Amino acid sequence: MSEHIYSTIRKDFLKSLIALLILLMMNFFSWQVMRTAVMNNVRERFMSESQFLKTLMQDRIKGYVQNVKEGKRWFRIDDTMTRKEFDDYFQAIKEEDVGEGMEGILYVAKVTALDKDSFVDKVRQDKATTPYGYPFFNIHVSEEKKEYYVVNYMVPHETFKNFFGNDIGLDPTLNTYFDQARDSGDIIVTPELQLFNLKRMLIVQPIYSGSITAADTKEKKQQQLKGFVVSVLKADSLFDGLLKDSTNPMSYAVYDGKLSEDMLPKNIAFYEDSNETVGMTKKEDLFISISSFTFADRIFTVFFSSKPTLGNGIIERNIPDIFLIVTSVLSCVMFLLMNSFIRIYEDEKSPSL
C-alpha cells in the first residue's frame, strides 16, 4: 500500500513539474512577445521622428531658398532696387524666422569691362544708406577681364563689409558655380566653399533683365544677366534647433552628397549630437536610419541614430524582465502549493498504520 502511495505521489509530482515547465515556457514566450512589442514601439517612434525631422530639414532648405527667390521679385527690370530697399528686403525675410543658418544676403552685380568705371562712380555716389556715399569704393581685381561678379549690396553690412567691391569671379570654384546658376536660369545650392575669408554654403539666384525661361539659350541668359542674389549659410547652424521640441533622445548628421561607403566626417554639412561621434554606428545605439533628399539638384544624406536613453520610459524600467521574474516566481509558488496539496490529499486518503 505504501509503495502505491509513493508511486502516486511521484506521478503527481511529475505532472506538477511538467505543468511548471510549461508555465515557465509560456512565461518566457510572453516575455519575448512583450519585449518585441516594446522594441517595435520604440522603433516606430524612432522612425516616425526621423521622418518628421527629415521633413523639417527639407522645409528649412525650402525656406532659405524661398528667401532668395524673394530677392528676384524685389529686383525690378529697370534695375532701380536701392541699397535701402535691399536692407528692407533682408529685414523682411529675417522676420520669417526660417532658422539661424542664414548669415546674410549679398547682391553680386555683373559688371562688364566697358561699364566698370561708370559702375564705380555710381556706387561712390550712392547715398541711400549713408549721407557720404562710398567715395573710396573700387572693384578689387588682380587682372583685367571682360566682366566681373562684384559684391555690391550686403546685409548685415558689418558682417560682409570686407566683401564690398570684391570680384567673386576671381575664385575659379566660386566662378564655376555662379556661371552654372547663370546658364541654368535657376537657383543652385553649393557645397561649403571658401567665400573670401569665410567658409560657407551658398544659395545663388541669378537675376536677369527681361524675361528668361529655362528653354532660353545660354547666350541669351549670359547677355541679359544683371547679377545674383546670394544667401550665405552657416553650415554648422543650417539645421539647428530641430530637436528642441523632441521627446525622443536622438542625434543626426547631414552629409553633403550621396551616401557611399567611404563617406567621411569631412563631408558633414551639419550635425547635432552631444559630444558623440557623429554619423558613426555605436554599439549602444538602439536604431539607425539613413535617408536622403534632393533640393535644387543637390543631394543631402541624413544619418539618424538613437541615443541609449531613447527607450528610457519603457526599456530601462525592464517591464518585460520584471514580468518574466514575477510570473516565474508565481509559477514556482504554484508548483510548491500543488505538491503540498497533493501530499495532504494522499495522506488523507491513506489508511492509518
UniProtKB/TrEMBL annotation:
**What Gene Ontology molecular-function terms does this entry list?**
catalytic activity
Share an example GO biological-process annotation for this protein: signal transduction
Note the superkingdom of the native organism.
Bacteria
- Keyword Plastid found: no
Q: Mainly localized where? A: membrane
Its subcellular locations are: Membrane
The record's PROSITE patterns line, in alphabetical order, gives: CHASE (PS50839)
Q: Which residues form the CHASE domain?
A: 77-274
Q: What is this protein called?
A: CHASE domain-containing protein
